[in-house]
Amino acid sequence: MANPVQIIDYSTLSDSVSSYLENEDLLSSDISLFVQLAEADFRKDVRLDLMIKSSALGGTLASGVAEFAEPTDFIETVVFTVENTSGRSRVLEYMDPRSFYEAGRNTVSGFPMVYTRLGGVFQLGPIPDAAYVYSLVYYGNVLALVPSVPTSSNALLLKEPNLYLYAVLKKATEFFSDDGATQKWSSFYEATKAALQSADARARYRPGLRERKSGAVDDGAFIHYS
User: Which of 31, 46, 51, 218 could pair covalently with 42 via S-S, beta carbons 3.0-4.6 A apart?
Assistant: First the structure.
């Protein structure tokens, strides 16, 4: 195995994958495929704060217009809010499409209270009866890696290179039908992913200490005293 290199971009990730696989003859097209497949897995099962697009999509809902297209990099909603005419925000609740249409949410007008998604389109209910300001915060795809700048690196690779490395190695060993290696890299990938998502959850929900009149509060990670 060659000496390890610091992973900071597509090139160094590619070198590291070749080194771990002890295969210097991998084609660049092979590496590109494995990276693409790893990023497809990220879209399915990785949700980290650095993927959140805060206030990335917002604007004004016109009266009588209840639909708008989801962002091209959209994965999953974090929070969807609409301001009423007094400037107060309401968090819209999600309804699955069948329940949304069975309840007739698309047939009445008023201040939007719920939404659904179908075919890459957001639909609100009731249909806006005035112009309302909205804001959508969502998980978005990581910027796909390619060999050339300016997209030869991205925020996820720079912050969590091991997650990228394990994911790409998992896809590579699957391709080569190396079951033992696939199991190893898959285990590393799952453990790393779980640790990162757990750390994000703790950072997101623990900063405000829970107020209690007395005693300790155990949130599963730390014990706080009030």
Answer: 46
